[in-house]
Model the fold of this input.
Amino acid sequence: MLIKKINELREYISPYKSNNESIGLVPTMGALHNGHLSLIKAAKEKCDRVVVSVFVNPIQFGPNEDYNKYPRTLDADYELCSANGVDVVFSPSPAEMYGEGNILSNDNLTYVCPPFSYTDKLCGKSRIGHFDGVCTVVNKLFNIVQPDLAFFGEKDAQQLIIIKKMVKDLNIPIEIIGCPIVREDTGLALSSRNKYLTESGKNDALVLSKILQNIRKCYKQGITDIEYLKETAFSFLNNNNVELEYLEIYDSDSLECTKFANDNSRAFIACRVEGVRLIDNIKLGD
Ligand code: PAF
Done:
């Protein structure tokens, strides 16, 4: 079932709720790939009913980002969801979500803003306001769908950490399930933005996972000094086609910075390849 209106979605799922069926929500921006399918699969395993939202959220994109260009493939997304047992694909328009007047002028909208200590680093540093946009739309989706569980990929680890924090701080009665990153055989983490890359760009992009794997290997060999672990990356960064935006190691839950890594530390990387911003991360312990 494809639903585009908030009221219709509420009407459609209300019998599930009356029957005490558990509802799983998989929030997405569409252009679905095997990474999203792994979230759908996890939701199917844990919940009676699965709702996938497909919404390219304008308020989480900066003015110079790829909102207009972001791949929109609703027909294919719907087919994929139907073939994988999803009960409802919810795909509202920006006007349906925010009201006509609020799409371009976000000074008339109530926002949910995560704490600065979670957003002043990694993607939040260059994508000002991005996580306000993410938390606001996720909160709206939670209120519209009222799921019991919601599924997010660990690929966007900072997003997942911030959403868990939001759910805790705002007492939202939804269990957040983080699902492991899905990679191509080459190691490249699946992302809707990989569609922008040429074959040679995809090859260049392998450096992200190689750097992360190497950091984890060094940690496993007993190196814990974070500055030293970060320095191990430089030998991989000899390709002019790859522009490093950040490489950091922080705590997996609090995003706190420490001098020495432990099993809960996570290495995060962002690079530009062929103008495409790619992110990846790895936990250092098992
Ligand atoms: O990860 C995404 O695709 C988006 O940030 C999300 C969570 C669907 C919110 O728009």
The chain is about 35% helix and 20% strand. Residues 27-29, 57, 60, 134, 137-138, 156, 159 surround pantoate (CB under 6 Å). The mean pLDDT is 96. The CA atoms of residues 166 and 172 lie 8 Å apart.
